[in-house]
Design brief:
The chain is α+β, with helices and mostly antiparallel strands and about 140 residues long.
Amino acid sequence: MKQSVYLFLLFFLLSYNVVNASEKISLMSLNDLNIIFSTNAQTWNENLVFLDKKLSMKKLQLKNNKNYSLKSTFKNGYVLITPYFKKDLVETLNINYNFNDIDQNTIDLIFKHFESLDLNFCNSLKTYKNDIIIDIKYC
């Protein structure tokens, strides 16, 4: 139950903290990542069913994943969060930031943030047009 509350707060903060590139951008903390990586598939899916009722959030079912993804919209685009589970634990977390308008400062800010995470996490970061795609897993 406590983990569900943390996940809810994480998603709530995501919906309000990812903002226009000209403003401050708040990104997932190390604590947020630890919570997600300690969440099992059932808890993840149950929380997304609840969060789907919020206007700024939507659960999605991607073709290549039996679990839900969370799409959270913000003023300048959206973020899509997709965990991939193995044996009911998160193996890889995919975070896709899509901006209607993006600049190099925003890209640099996001890259530096995720590159500076705990050494227990390995990241793959790339850009494609207006997307910043981040894959995170335990090393």
